[in-house]
Design a protein that fits this description.
Elements lengths: L1 H28 L1 H4 L3 H20 L6 H12 L1 H16 L1 H28 L17 H18 L3 H4 L15 H33 L3 H11 L6 H21 L3 H21 L5
Helix pairs in contact: 1-9, 1-11, 3-6, 3-9, 4-5, 6-9, 7-12, 9-10, 9-11, 9-12, 10-11
């Protein structure tokens, strides 16, 4: 039994991780590796800039002043008042406010890093985990993750602190579980695709040449920090999940398994909380 588990470990994780470490060592010993590593600098600074932009632009009301100023600069005082009134209206309305945050998250997690990869680094998105080649072959690994996570999702959804937070789109009656809620859940899922590309794609694959498998642990630091406003079990869990999903991305060279698992857990938590509160059968 131990021998079988050892072979499975080497097949799914051991051999790919050793290959990543060997490639990283070869790079560091090469003439390019002994010089200034502008790729790592670009990835880390872009990550910091994107997280900062997301923090200060994730709610419409945070842009009232600057958006009003820009509108006034180009179209006059009436435009300033109109733009500021619209931003305040979106802030006060649940659907637009959440959609705004989801779109900003996708832009800063996926679009901006993607443009940096293509236009500045001049590399392929598939080199940063956007490809799907070889993903199907490792389906037992993803199934194990799902089997472990889904019961935990149901368990934690019974706690008041989770029910007070999820779903982000607050539902007061069964009648509200309709098209607008579904649209939000689609944007919510898109946000996780962006998140996986940013952390498990851009950060991990963008620095593995320098840090090898330790790129996963570098990525986990900011990933944990974006969970600081969540319940503490989720924040602690983000460290373990971040490492696990980072390793999966590293060995499969794809962010899609992590994205699928993340969406499964997110939707599972929303539906579990709604089911426990009687909002869905």
């Amino acid at each position: 039994m131990v021998r079988v588990l050892r072979k499975l470990w080497d097949r799914w994780f051991g051999d790919p991780l050793r290959k990543v470490e060997a490639d990283s060592l070869a790079y560091r010993l090469s003439p390019a590796g002994r010089g200034m590593d502008w790729k790592t600098v670009t990835v880390v600074l872009t990550a910091a800039a994107c997280l900062t932009l997301q923090n200060y632009a994730s709610h419409p009301d945070r842009l009232v002043t600057i958006a009003g100023w820009l509108a006034g600069l180009t179209s006059g005082p009436d435009a300033t008042r109109e733009v500021q009134a619209q931003l305040r209206e979106w802030t006060a309305t649940q659907g637009p406010r959440l959609m705004w945050g989801g779109i900003v998250a996708f832009l800063t997690y996926a679009v901006v890093p993607g443009l940096i990869i293509k236009l500045w680094l001049r590399e392929r998105l598939t080199d940063y985990g956007a490809g799907i080649r070889g993903v199907i072959a490792d389906w037992p690994v993803y199934l194990i993750f799902a089997v472990v996570m889904l019961p935990l999702v149901w368990l934690f959804s019974g706690e008041e602190r989770f029910q007070g937070l999820y779903p982000f789109y607050r539902i007061q009656s069964r009648a509200e579980v309709g098209p607008e809620f579904i649209r939000w859940e689609v944007v919510y899922a898109l946000q996780f695709v962006g998140l996986e590309f940013f952390f498990r794609g851009f950060m991990v694959h963008g620095t593995k040449h320098r840090f090898g498998a330790y790129a996963v642990f570098l990525m986990v630091v900011p990933y944990c920090m974006i969970h600081f406003h969540k319940p503490i079990p989720e924040c602690i869990g983000s460290i373990l999940a971040g490492i696990a999903l980072g390793v999966v991305s590293l060995v499969t060279r794809s962010i899609w398994p992590g994205a699928a698992l993340h969406i499964l857990v997110a939707w599972g938590m929303d539906l579990s909380c709604l089911a426990r509160s009687g909002m869905i059968p």
